[in-house]
Write a structure and sequence with these properties.
Number of strands: 6
Low-confidence stretches: 21-70
Largest sheet: 4 strands, mixed
Shape: globular
Number of helices: 11
Strand order of the largest sheet: 1-2-6-5
Number of domains: 1
Distance between the termini: 29 Å
């Protein structure tokens, strides 16, 4: 993937090296975690997000039997970092800003409001509660920030066999996809539906949210390639391999030896690849409507 010659976003907050601070937030709410065994939870956490209800609204991290106010971490330096992996993240974020600033207005009549990207090491506080590296990258709709411990990229390659610049860019673009969902009103609606839903139905809603974010990542890549020719040989295969590697079926099979579709929260490998490809081929937000799709 070509990225070295592109601008770097200044919407980056670098907290790496800061102490994480604070105690872990209790996860409560309806049905507890509701993701099956802790083994499956850990594998899913290392994929492309955290518990879906944390993703959808942060409620599970800040709501127990009563309200728990999240602690606020000290702000780190802002602007593009100087190290290579930080520069890479800032360059990818900049490309998402340039693409979405154009096409969100054109296709959804909505002005793009760029999220901040928080880089941390180990643990930090987010608007959705206490965040740890083991949770994997995630988007917090409460403070509208993306959070990532960049060591995740090395773990992604080592643990999941999914590496390469474009695969790593897909991770960031996926989280930006959740920000798009928030801006167009999808996340608040799904959060409200999940509050009234059974665990099985809440999981099914989460799958549709995740697959839509995969599709939005593909939409970004479509337009980035059209405008700047960012793709190099093997890049598409890298991204599709990454999408397949974080499918719930593959993660569950690796963790427990069996697959439980009702507990899926992100979608199967085939589904994740298919929706990423839908965005890549069409470049259209309208083609990413997983909530009206008869076939996921």
């Amino acid at each position: 993937m070509r990225w070295e010659d592109f601008r770097r976003s200044t919407n980056v907050e670098d907290r790496r090296g800061q102490p994480g601070g604070g105690g872990g937030m209790r996860m409560g709410g309806r049905g507890g975690l509701g993701l099956g065994t802790m083994v499956v939870l850990g594998l899913i956490g290392w994929a492309l997000g955290i518990d879906p209800r944390i993703l959808i609204g942060g409620a599970e991290m800040v709501m127990g039997d009563g309200q728990v106010a999240p602690q606020v971490a000290p702000a780190g330096p802002t602007g593009a970092p100087s190290d290579k992996v930080g520069q890479f993240a800032a360059a990818v974020l900049a490309q998402t800003e340039d693409v979405w600033s154009s096409i969100l207005q054109q296709q959804a009549n909505r002005r793009y409001e760029a999220p901040a990207l928080v880089l941390f090491s180990g643990a930090t506080q987010s608007g959705c509660g206490f965040a740890q590296a083991q949770m994997g990258p995630f988007y917090c709709p409460v403070d509208r920030k993306l959070y990532i411990d960049l060591a995740f990229f090395a773990d992604m390659q080592r643990r999941l066999g999914a590496g390469g610049d474009f695969a790593f860019a897909y991770v960031i673009a996926h989280e930006v996809g959740h920000h798009i969902e928030n801006l167009i009103g999808i996340l608040p609606k799904v959060q409200e539906m999940q509050r009234r839903a059974s665990e099985r139905d809440a999981n099914a809603l989460s799958v549709r949210v995740e697959l839509m974010a995969d599709c939005f990542a593909g939409v970004w890549a479509h337009h980035a390639e059209k405008r700047w020719r960012i793709l190099e040989a093997g890049d598409l295969e890298e991204a599709l391999n990454a999408a397949a590697a974080v499918g719930d079926d593959r993660l569950q099979r690796a963790g427990t030896g069996r697959v439980v579709p009702d507990s899926f929260t992100h979608g199967s490998s085939d589904q994740r690849m298919r929706w990423l490809q839908a965005g890549l081929k069409s470049g259209s937000i309208a083609q990413c409507n997983t909530f009206e799709a008869q076939r996921l």
